[in-house]
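Consider this record:
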Amino acid sequence: MPVKKETAKKRTVKKAAPAAKKTIKPDLKEFLEEVQQKAYELYQERLRSGVAGDEMADWFKAEKTIKEKYKL
């Protein structure tokens, strides 16, 4: 009876996805400091332009901006 030769199986190596740019995420203290600074800038802009608003709206807008910056 003939003996079957083992055939070497080709191994395929999966290529890793291109490395995405890693965004360094701030710790909570840094995040809140950035939000506070941005909210203050928005407040000053709002006063200069005479647009109605309040500090909570400034804070939420600043928070949204900073979250987008860090892709959170």
The first helix runs from residue 28 to 49. The mean pLDDT is 85. The two ends are 66 Å apart (CA to CA). Residues 28-69 form one domain.
